[in-house]
Amino acid sequence: MRHMGDREGEGSLSGCRSGNLRTDKADLRRNFRRRAATYEQYAQVQRDMAGELLRLAETEIKKAARILEVGCGTGTLTRELRRLNPRAWILAVDLDPEILRRARVALAGDRGIAWLAMDAESLSQGGFDLIIANSVFQWFSRPHATLARYHRMLRPGECLAFSAMGPATFRELGQAWRRAAARPEAGPPVPVAATFAAGPDWVRMLNQAGFQDVRLARELRVVSYPSVLEFLKAVQGTGAVSPRPRALTPRLLRRLLAVYQDLFGNGVVPATYELLYLMARK
């Protein structure tokens, strides 16, 4: 394994360990469909992730004849793939047909892009020179099997490149939840990001799937928000929340907001994002 970098700076959400979302794809799709209209407004971290992923994979993007984009969402990464490579044939896949429709409208007239609404973990046809995804793999329910499938779908010598959120994402929220639930309510909800695969987990799974020359970069980014409510609003605005969220009682929610503010507030409140970038070759 080679490291592309390890940076900590100022400045999203979170990949999922195998099995946690096995029965939740319908809930996940509803989450993102519900927030399709607000995603662009609140997805600054995801846009920054896309920019870094594009920088790391630029050489692979420019030389690829056939590109598979997993989880294209509203088309942010798709537009940049086309800008960097005007000639490639791109298959853009997303779980939700409505979000896919928005991306198609944004890139209307580009006949070199094929759009497919389906669970990208079920894809099987291959022959790709590049498989790429931004902030998607953390939601996989079968990461081991899916990485092995993507390995088969790549042409020999070609590349898989993706970004994902790691388990340190929203660590302040997890700490505040644990403290808040020490009051009479039992069993705090666990932030979904805490279940995401860590960088070494992804490296191990990629190696087990048959990939070589696996490279990992990790960034811890702290984003400041005006208040805890603004932070939670931004998270919900991207749809990147638990597919099956546990309802909070009004009392526990008030306690959570107060504890988060007391622990971390200083004019603004921080939220940590652990951003992972991985590249691997067949």
Describe this structure in words.
The protein is an alpha/beta fold. The chain has a single domain (2-168, 195-221, 273-281), classed as Vaccinia Virus protein VP39 (Rossmann fold), CATH 3.40.50.150. Helices cover 39% and strands 25% of the residues. The chain has ten helices and eight strands. It has helices at 25-34, 39-42, 44-63, 76-84, 97-106, 143-153, 171-180, 199-208, 228-238, 250-264, and strands at residues 2-10, 66-70, 89-94, 113-117, 128-133, 154-165, 212-225, 269-281. An eight-stranded mixed β-sheet has the order 1-7-8-6-5-2-3-4, with helices on both faces. It is globular and about 55 Å long. The model is unreliable at 5-23 (pLDDT under 50).
